[in-house]
Design a protein that fits this description.
This protein is mainly alpha-helical. It is built from five helices and six strands. The longest helix is centred in the middle third of the chain and has 72 residues, at 120-191.
Length: 243
């Protein structure tokens, strides 16, 4: 801050540093590269995959299709009707006709038999049904992969936007510091009669624009930051790299 000395000359103190450590950004240093402060992008993506509700939903759908396919392979047993009979006794035959070629029927003795009934539709359509279940499983797996790709794309856009907004915020802060210094000097010079009120107003306007740009860039950075935290699914503190 510039202050008049006893000799009437302006003395400029150290540059002002706008406060940027609100609760939302206290873990981040504007003066340092944000890429060095956060976990690597691949690590962020791995965390996002583990916590993404959409990815977990698609994984559950895949698990359901796997279970359905396994069930369809043994579903034929639901329509099989086995029947077993066994009887013992003296062997005898009953002739139902008058000639030797007529039908002979066993009326006693030992008899055994097994009867299995399977619908023809099950025999003919079983292979197609299993192929259908396999196709549904492949489709569910593809949807899961698509959800991961979309998540990676959205996270990458948000991550790159955050890095850009962070760099721009640092630039705007430096501009605001210089504008503030210039305005303080203009105030002193105005008191000394070296500049007019119009010059002071112009310097004040430049300072106001610079401060506005700082707040705008801070808001943009926080928007990207919140979006990234939401995509990853964990608190910001867990995304800070530990050096």
């Amino acid at each position: 801050m510039a202050q008049p000395s006893r000799a009437g000359q302006a003395v400029v103190s150290e540059p002002l540093h706008p406060v940027v450590t609100e609760p939302d950004t206290i873990l981040l240093d504007v003066s340092k590269s944000l890429a060095d402060q956060l976990l690597p992008f691949d690590s962020l993506y791995e965390i996002a995959v583990r916590h993404s509700p959409l990815v977990r939903f698609e994984e559950a759908m895949v698990d359901g299709k796997v279970a359905s396919l396994s069930l369809s392979k043994v579903a034929v047993l639901q329509v099989v009707s086995p029947f077993f009979t066994y009887a013992t006794g003296n062997q005898a035959y009953l002739n139902t006709g008058t000639v030797a070629s007529d039908f002979l029927q066993s009326i006693n003795g030992r008899r055994m038999g097994i009867n299995i009934q399977v619908p023809v539709s099950e025999l003919l359509g079983r292979r197609h049904k299993i192929n259908q279940m396999r196709a549904e499983l492949s489709a569910a797996s593809a949807r899961k992969d698509i959800s991961k790709l979309e998540l990676k794309r959205d996270l990458n856009r948000t991550y790159q936007g955050l890095l850009t907004a962070h760099r721009l915020l640092g630039i705007r802060i430096r501009d605001a510091q210089l504008a503030m210094m210039a305005y303080r000097v203009a105030e002193v010079e105005m008191q000394q009669g070296k500049i007019s009120a119009a010059n002071l107003a112009s310097s004040s306007n430049v300072n106001a624009i610079a401060q506005h740009n700082v707040e705008k860039e801070r808001g943009d950075m926080l928007s990207f930051l919140y979006d990234m935290v939401a995509l990853v699914g964990v608190d910001l503190a867990q995304l800070i790299a530990k050096h």
